[in-house]
């Protein structure tokens, strides 16, 4: 077993590598589990998590959020992080995949009637996968 | 709307990222292969993200249910084939045979086999937990999305249930249908039993297995009560423990003494407590405690207390530690501590009754002496002796009771943690035997004890010591119910002390009074204080009279000095100063004093009536004393010298009167008893006593009696004993029965009768007080209130109250209310 390092590497599907604090990375459930020393998966031995479902732009935002979350975890009345609207759907899917980033994005999609942000994300993911439709057209606006 | 902002469009998720179609079977094959790797601990080759992504996709493709079922089936298969087999391998034939109760194996073999089994089980359980935790991590998305939406239990929990079903509830082997769970219980219990027998066992190992049982549940509700630990193991544990301790307590009660039993029980309780903390679960603590307490204490405490070496033995032998153990045990099962309280009370009562009986026996023993004496002449003296014996018995009684009290105080303090309940019980028991109807003398004995101390006991003691003695007396007094009887005796004894100047210290007397005042109230000591006041006034009077006489002029060398005590007749128990009332009343005024004395007596009467007009003085010659200087003619001394002898004789007033008769009598003449009586007019009994002390007592034989015998008969003749010789110049002629002694039976009956008489007045007064206030009252209530009012003084019998009420009705203080449902009375103003 190797020693757990302070920083871990997150790799996007288009090859961008993000070295971020292990503590911050572990805010995301999926990353945390992947790096869990108790389980001893390959990610743990390499301190590197490949994320083939997420592209560099989104992953950058994800990393930003992880730090943002870590920084403000203890404080109250934190203003929402600035999220570019054009990224929000992809971020939402990434959040669902990585577990526990939903709350950060949901305010932006909160205006969508009838569904919770998570449902929207999953529905849109499935739709994309199933019907190959252009998402924008099916988004209520 | 976001899209309405124009140029900013939400980018669509890129296609093809997740794979367009998904081949479930293939994906599952990948996952399954990975799971096998995980189960065989080869996880480091696997990419978590990859597995996660597979599961993620399956769930997204709405195939969560399939996935769930596959995983479930996979786990079931794994447990049933791989794990169960490895567990079954651990079961040695010995272990199985033993579990059936047919074991002839040694404890050590059993322990080793058991530990091996438990270790294997622990290992399997641990592995299962770790693997399932990894699987659950991989399947996190399924848990989060599929299980949450379809209300299925998370896969981890489902796998735990599988472990229960496939391992714990599985048969031991193909041919043996008993479940492994039962075996686990058995092995653990066996290990615990070994520990109880003094073996060392692997507590940590057992604890791990216990945790396993704690983590699994009997059914799907997963409630606290349904944990396998509670349902399966704990019940067995409590049952076997109950059986074990039942047997053990039986054996111990037969084999060892109570002290050992107690310390053993305490150790067991402690052990079980520790066991729950270290080996089992703490939640079992109270339950097993109850079992142990039930079996070792509650069901046995009675036997334990009653054992030959039980509480009685401990009390008798001052086994304070053991008593403390018994107390402790009793307290565990019974907040009221009934058993030990009962035993202690019984012991106090028995010991107290023993002291009572000893006192009675001691006071009666000498009475049997005259019976053995052939001559009857000894009877009188023997009676006196027996009185002395009784006094000694009385003081011994008090000291014994105090010793008993000290003993139980110590026990109470050291063994019973100063428990207030037990203190009450002890106090009650002391009260019980002190006020026992078969032993009516406690008041008298306590008063005598004080008397003895006032006269002799406190001599040469420091203030502190004196105070302790007084405090002791008060302690006893507290127990006495009939305080009025005590007051009567105390007055009598105090009276004697004061008049005969026997008190060592007036200060101490006063101290005692003030102590009683605190304890019993103002009322109680009122008359006692009046007695002291009389004494002070008398001293002043004596001094005043002396001055008065001095002032009369010419010094008369032969003048007699007079010291006088003027006593208020109501306050002083004069009748108790010897002789019976009837005799005294008849003869008191008629005692003839010699002229010289008579003169000074007149002088004082005159002096007194000048000071206080309208008061009548009655002379009580039977209570006084006199100092006489007597000159005996020359006689040959032991050392051969030949000279006159002078003695200062301290005699009673009567003795003085008698002796003065012989002043005028020629040496060779004599007086008969009848002549003496005629000339002096001294009451018969007093005369007999005084003559006895003057003529019979060997050391103070100033008169010669003919014929010489111990009894004084009317025909006896008395003459002056010229050849009298004494060692000292001052001689005290003690009058028989001069000191405070225990009363004879006759006297006591009288005292009691008098006491009853005065009680009647008290009761009447109380009844009238109550009725005056209430005007009308029912009988029951009246009796109750009367009892309440008199509580501090004595406890009257109800019949006595009834009689007093009758008497009051007769005298028209009260009347019955006609036609009332229950008996009621009305007060008549």
Note the topology.
The complex is a heterodimer of chains A (141) and B (829).
Chain A (H helix, E strand, L loop, with lengths): L6 E5 L5 E5 H4 L3 H6 L7 H5 L1 E3 L5 H17 L15 H11 L3 H8 L7 H15 L3 H4 L3
Parallel strand pairs in A: 1-3
Antiparallel strand pairs in A: 1-2
Helix pairs in contact in A: 4-5, 5-6, 5-7
Chain B lengths: L23 H16 L8 H13 L3 H27 L2 H7 L7 H32 L1 H11 L4 H14 L11 H17 L6 H13 L12 H28 L2 H21 L6 H14 L2 H6 L4 H6 L3 H14 L4 H27 L3 H5 L6 H37 L4 H15 L7 H16 L5 H17 L3 H17 L6 H15 L1 H30 L29 H7 L7 H17 L13 E12 L5 E11 H11 L7 E2 H8 L3 H13 L6 E4 L10 E4 L9 E3 L12 H30 L1 E3 H12 L7 H13 L3 E3 L7 E4 L2
Parallel strand pairs in B: 2-6
Antiparallel strand pairs in B: 1-2, 3-5, 4-5, 7-9, 8-9
What does this structure look like?
- The complex is a heterodimer of chains A (141) and B (829).
- The longest helix of chain A is centred in the middle third of the chain and has 17 residues, at 56-72.
- Chain A is built from eight helices and three strands, in the order ββαααβααααα.
- Chain A is mainly alpha-helical and 141 residues long.
- The N and C termini of chain A lie far apart (51 Å).
- Chain A is globular.
- In chain A, strands 2-1-3 form a three-stranded mixed β-sheet.
- The model of chain A is unreliable at 108-116 and 126-141 (pLDDT under 50).
- Chain A has one domain (7-73, 81-117): Potassium Channel Kv1.1, Chain A (2-Layer Sandwich), CATH 3.30.710.
- Chain A is 50% helix and 9% strand.
- Chain B has 829 residues and is mainly α.
- Among the domains of chain B are: 19-179, Cullin Repeats (5 helical Cullin repeat like, Up-down Bundle), CATH 1.20.1310.10; 623-732, Cullin, Chain C, Domain 2 (Ribosomal Protein S5, domain 2, 2-Layer Sandwich), CATH 3.30.230; 745-827, Winged helix-like DNA-binding domain superfamily/Winged helix DNA-binding domain (Arc Repressor Mutant, subunit A, Orthogonal Bundle), CATH 1.10.10.10.
- Chain B is 64% helix and 6% strand.
- In chain B, the strands form three sheets. In chain B, strands 1-2-6 form a three-stranded mixed β-sheet.
- In chain B, β8 and β9 form a beta hairpin.
- Residues 1-6, 366-383 and 578-589 of chain B have low confidence and may be disordered.
- The chains are: A mainly alpha (141), B mainly alpha (829).
- The A-B interface holds A 13, 29-30, 33-34, 36, 38-45, 49-53, 55, 84-90, 93, 97, 99, 108, 111, 122, 124-126, 128-129, 132, 134-136, 139, 141 and B 1-5, 8-15, 17-18, 20, 43-49, 52-53, 56, 60-62, 130, 133-134, 137-138, 140-141, 144-145.
- Chain B: This is Cullin-domain-containing protein.
- Chain B: Residues 441-695 form the Cullin family profile domain.
